[in-house]
Every structure is written in C-alpha cells, then in structure tokens.
Amino acid sequence: MTDISRIDTIFFDLGDTFRVIRKDPEYSRKARARICEILGSPMDPDEFYDKVIEPRYAVYRAWALRFLCEAPEEELWARWVAYDFPREIIHEHASELCYEYRKSKGERVVTPGGIETARELKRRGYKLAIVSDLVGTTEVDEWLDHDGIRDLFDSVQQSSLCLIRKPHPAIYYYALSECGSRGETTCFVGDNVERDIVGAKAAGLGMTVGVKYPGKNWPELNEEMTPDRVITAFPQLLDIFPERR
Q1: Which fold has domain 4-20+110-240?
Q2: Mean of the pLDDT values across residues 127-145?
Q3: DSSP codes joined into one string, 135-198
Q4: What's the whole-model pTM score?
C-alpha cells in the first residue's frame, strides 16, 4: 500500500480526467466548416470531415501511438491530413487547423468540481502539474488564462510541445524536473490505464489514481495497468490526499 504521507506532487491528465467533452453539434459543425474554409475545399464540411479528415487523421494517430511521438502542427497537416492542399496555407494556419480539429469533437470543459479540487489540493500543500497528450499548441494556454488557473500548476507538459506521448517516461520526467519533484513522491491521476497508468509506473512515480467516470470502460487490467486507487468523481481526490501543512 502506497504511503500517501510521502506524496507531495500530483500530476493530472487532461482529457476525460480534468476536462471532459461536452457534445454540441452546432459547435462541432462550425469547427468542421472552418477547417473546410481554411483549406479551400468545395466539399460539404461534414462530408469532407468524414471522408477526408478523419480517415487521414486515423493514419496519423496510428503512427503517433506506434512511435509515442506527436508531430509538429505543420508536419501533421502537411504530411498526413492535408498533404494535397497548398503548403503555404498549411504553414499559415497549422495552429488554427489543430485547434478547430479539437473543437470538431466537442467543447472541452472542466469536469465538475475540477478547479475547486485543484485549488484545495494546492492549498493543502501539494505541487500540481499537467501531463497531457493532445494536438495543437494554443488551446491549453488559452484555457488556463481564460479560467485563471495557470498559477495552480508548476508544470504544464503537452505532447504537442515536447513531441513525446505517454506512456513514454520522458514526458513525466520533464514535469518532475520542472516541478523540482521526485518520482517516488509523485502521484499521477488519469483515465487511460494503458497510457496514463503504464507510463507513470514506467517513470517510477510513487502512486497512481485511475479516473473512471460513469460510462468509462477499461480493458482487463494487468499489473502494469492497475492503479493504486480509483475515483469516479474528481472531488474524491480530496478524500485521498490530506492536508500537508
């Protein structure tokens, strides 16, 4: 059993952990239309998305998962997703294309009680960090500033910036270094047992918490994928991590 009294740092995944997708057909449709507009495609935005963007992105994602690498924004679109469109357009709009692609899936919102829980953990004396796999370099900064929570985190590691994806240990090491923390006194909180939990253990983190919101399915767990604790709502972290001061 993990000695929780030794934990002084908590890393959070973003997708389906700290933030969740709120489905909004109109929000997604506007994002698809904007991708079509940027690239100058004459196709219907939904048809273009379903028949061109998504199949090509699936090929990219298979590459990213195989090599545990996130491609730079321009490379992603020029090599995989929009290779038959003018390179100068991609060069100018790569960041926006990534952001609109993310929005095409739905609106990202903080899970209920997420900010309040993070603030309380910070008040209790824990160092906090984000370690997340995602495409695009502008979305997270915009969100942190919009919600006024940048000060909560000692490190924000994004695969789109460091170009390394979980479960590669390096992305965890970057966060440890920036936080000035040790692996054995750090906990990782994430929903994806095959990447979040496996990677955290590979990096030598001292504790893992699996996030299993209602409707979330996990594969059959082996030792590598089994978290030390499981929560079904983000504020339950406050029941795990006591006051440190």
Answers
A1: Rossmann fold (3.40.50)
A2: 96
A3: S-SSHHHHHHHHHT-GGG-SEEEEHHHH-B-TTSHHHHHHHHHHHT--GGGEEEEES-IIIIIH
A4: 0.96
